[in-house]
């Protein structure tokens, strides 16, 4: 039985990525399990790893569900994270972000009345 999930985004510059992801999550990373790897633990058994591997950088996509997409969009703009605002996508409302290497980070909020 699965009990958790750590998504992974591969980047070329650890310091630059840490700065960007810290602004996305609103806080510093929770762990540095090894050289070139930083982690944000977002809920029990759930988080995101950012791994430095310049040859593979920029080809990751993660989708993270949020409770209040509009509030997150405003907070991100205030922290300097540019985006095009929430839009419909895949049966939800989404906010598409792109880290400095081109990895996609998509924040999603289910449409009202949509059941899983």
Automatic annotation (TrEMBL):
Keyword Lyase: yes
PROSITE patterns the UniProt entry points to: VOC (PS51819)
Keywords for this protein: Lyase
Database matches in Gene3D superfamilies: 2,3-Dihydroxybiphenyl 1,2-Dioxygenase, domain 1
Family matches, as Pfam families: Glyoxalase_6 (PF18029)
Span of domain VOC: 2-110
Entry's Gene Ontology molecular function annotations: lyase activity
Alphabetized InterPro entries for the sequence: Glyas_Bleomycin-R_OHBP_Dase, Glyoxalase_6, VOC_core
Protein name in the entry: Enzyme related to lactoylglutathione lyase
Species in which this protein is naturally found: Glutamicibacter mysorens
Organism lineage: Bacteria, Bacillati, Actinomycetota, Actinomycetes, Micrococcales
């Amino acid at each position: 039985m699965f009990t958790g999930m750590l998504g992974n985004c591969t980047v070329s510059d650890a310091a630059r990525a840490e700065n960007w992801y810290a602004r996305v999550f609103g806080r510093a990373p929770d762990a540095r399990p090894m050289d070139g790897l930083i982690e944000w633990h977002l809920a029990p058994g759930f988080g995101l790893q950012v791994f430095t591997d310049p040859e593979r950088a920029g080809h990751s996509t993660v989708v993270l569900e949020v409770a209040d997409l509009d509030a997150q969009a405003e907070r991100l703009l205030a922290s300097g994270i540019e985006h095009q605002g929430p839009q419909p996508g895949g049966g939800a409302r989404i906010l598409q972000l792109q880290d400095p290497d081109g990895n996609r980070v998509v924040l999603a909020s289910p449409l009202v009345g949509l059941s899983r």
